[in-house]
UniProtKB/TrEMBL annotation:
Source species: Ciconia maguari
Domain USP: 1-216
Superkingdom per UniProt: Eukaryota
Record's protein name: UBP16 hydrolase
Transmembrane regions listed in the UniProt entry: none
GO cellular component: cytosol; nucleus
GO molecular function: cysteine-type deubiquitinase activity
Length: 217
């Protein structure tokens, strides 16, 4: 979806990105890189309909002559609607010549994550004045092995039902009050039919492949 935005706010976020200073090798650093401001120049210039019409006239003349104007531009992907459930999928492979190689590097991730530095300042379901969009970790999928073979296991938190979150999912109600602490509960490690209670520190040291967060309300 392309929309005309005020240039003064088009690249603004709910919280100042420059204050984040994310640690390399962390999920914050991954999100910071994924949502960074990109300059589109040279062969990546943007086809500008407004510039084309200004230069060649109405569109009906442009199509027949196939003339277009490309211009330098800036691009940034930001979150415009904060989801009730946040799923982060880490790219755990890289190209090595003609082969794919698994990335085994540990990526640090917190129990509570703030998406505000990655949300547009006009994020649709964030109450006016809120500068935090917090999520609590409740599930992790981990993969062990190589690109050719391996084993998937999971960590899941058993916790009480969040009625406010259910309202957000079912009715789209925006939260007015914020909780800042992770949802309380017991973590479990699941591997096939084996289930074992584990500590939060064990979960946070895992080699995450998928991360599941629920919004704090």
């Amino acid at each position: 979806e392309v929309s005309t935005e005020d240039p003064e706010t088009a690249f603004c976020t709910l919280a100042n990105r420059e204050d984040l200073n994310p640690e390399e090798g962390s999920i914050y650093h991954c999100l910071y890189q994924f949502t960074r401001n990109e300059k589109l120049t040279e062969t990546n210039k943007l086809l500008c309909d407004v510039c084309t019409q200004r230069h060649y006239g109405p569109k009906k003349n442009i199509k027949s002559e196939k003339k277009y104007v490309y211009t330098n531009a800036k691009k940034q992907m930001l979150i415009s609607l904060a989801p009730p459930i946040l799923t982060l999928h880490l790219k755990r492979f890289q190209q090595a010549g003609f082969n794919l190689r698994k990335v085994n590097r540990h990526i640090k991730f917190p129990e509570v994550i703030d998406l505000a530095p990655f949300c547009t300042v006009k994020c649709k379901n964030v109450a006016e004045g809120n500068t935090k969009v917090l999520y609590s970790l409740y599930g992790v999928v981990e993969h062990s092995g190589t690109m050719r073979s391996g084993h998937y296991t999971a960590y899941a938190k058993m916790r009480s039902m969040n009625n406010h979150l259910s309202d957000l999912v079912l009715q789209g109600q925006s939260p007015q009050a914020l909780e800042t602490e992770p949802v309380k509960g017991q973590w479990f490690h699941i591997s096939d039919t084996h289930v074992q209670a584990v500590s939060a520190s064990k979960v946070l040291s895992s080699q995450a492949y998928l991360l599941f967060y629920e919004r704090l309300l």
